[in-house]
Amino acid sequence: MSDLYAVIGNPIGHTKSPLIHTAFAEQTGQPIHYTAIEGSLGGFAGAVDAFRAAGGRGLNITAPFKLDAFAYATDLTAAAQVAGAVNAMKFDGDRVLADNFDGVGLVRDIIHNLACPIAGRCVLLLGAGGAARGALPPILAEKPSHVVIVNRTFAKARQLAEAFAHTGPVDAEAYSALRDQPFDIILNATSASQCGEFLPVHGDIFAPDCLAYELVYGKGLTPFLKMARDNGVRRLVDGVGMLVEQAAEAFVWWRGVRPDTRPVIEKLTVPLLEA
Ligand code: NDP
């Protein structure tokens, strides 16, 4: 008898989570069955109640339900509280344990898979939404020389920087102030690339050996990555590694076994071709 897990989102047709977790289960011999649930907008709690009643053991949560999951949880980890959003839950009787593995997944991808240390490097974080909030604490824990956050709504960048200034060297700046300061690692944690939009940044933000990391995945050469390439950056990556690494963290949390992420990342990697 398999244990039941799922991902819930809306829309959900694009999700790679069943493929990822099924590959992890086969690799580790864990008896799990993993499906995808399209929750109706406004119907998150009802869908999760039904899943639990059917014996569901845990869920991944994707857009637009990460805040609903935060509200639904009874026990939030520090990472979930910091992100203000939940992307994984497990059920234990009446308790709903909730975590957010996006940030730790991103940092694992950068350090382990891409062999790019964060320690001592200058990091630019574009965006101040849920993904950026989740990413900031594990990035600061790696002891970068400096982190700068910029966001379209500047107040959100400032608020985020202020909330973590006691844990490391982090500041907020406006897009317009980003001149003549090259960064070693630039993370696009905005959703601008989802709609093919360019960010108002100058080409001089890219240091010669810069890692340009687009959190959106599977979209080929996004406007951000195109801009990085056109300014001489050779290390261009999208968020497929982050996606698989956050899934692996949830798998470990649920099952107590760490899967090998490399073959799954290779399987899901889409070449960064011109869109
Ligand atoms: P949120 O909706 O919480 O935040 C969106 C962010 O993007 C905000 O900072 C917003 O700025 C900014 N933004 C949106 N449109 C524009 C624009 N046209 N120009 C400039 N800034 C813009 O989303 P998330 O933080 O949850 O996700 C961000 C991206 O990261 C998404 O594209 C998502 O797909 C990706 N992601 C990838 C993951 C992976 O596993 N690879 C995991 C999680 C997220 P403002 O505050 O001003 O509105």
TrEMBL record:
Residues 7-88 form the Shikimate dehydrogenase substrate binding N-terminal domain. One of its GO terms (molecular function) is NADP binding. The keyword NADP applies. NADP(+) binds at residues 127-131, 151-156, 215, 239. Signal peptide: none annotated. It catalyses: shikimate + NADP(+) = 3-dehydroshikimate + NADPH + H(+). Residues 239-268 form the SDH C-terminal domain. Pfam families: SDH_C, Shikimate_DH, Shikimate_dh_N. One of its GO terms (biological process) is aromatic amino acid family biosynthetic process. Keywords: Amino-acid biosynthesis, Aromatic amino acid biosynthesis, NADP, Oxidoreductase. Pathway: Metabolic intermediate biosynthesis; chorismate biosynthesis; chorismate from D-erythrose 4-phosphate and phosphoenolpyruvate: step 4/7. Its EC number is 1.1.1.25. SUPFAM superfamilies: Aminoacid dehydrogenase-like, N-terminal domain, NAD(P)-binding Rossmann-fold domains. The active site is at residue 66. Gene3D superfamilies: Leucine Dehydrogenase, chain A, domain 1, NAD(P)-binding Rossmann-like Domain. Residues 118-194 form the Quinate/shikimate 5-dehydrogenase/glutamyl-tRNA reductase domain. One of its GO terms (cellular component) is cytosol. Involved in the biosynthesis of the chorismate, which leads to the biosynthesis of aromatic amino acids. Catalyzes the reversible NADPH linked reduction of 3-dehydroshikimate (DHSA) to yield shikimate (SA). PANTHER family: BIFUNCTIONAL 3-DEHYDROQUINATE DEHYDRATASE_SHIKIMATE DEHYDROGENASE, CHLOROPLASTIC (PTHR21089:SF1), SHIKIMATE DEHYDROGENASE (PTHR21089). Belongs to the shikimate dehydrogenase family. Homodimer. NCBIfam families: aroE (TIGR00507), PRK00258.1-2 (NF001310). This is Shikimate dehydrogenase (NADP(+)). It comes from Candidatus Competibacter denitrificans Run_A_D11. The gene is aroE.
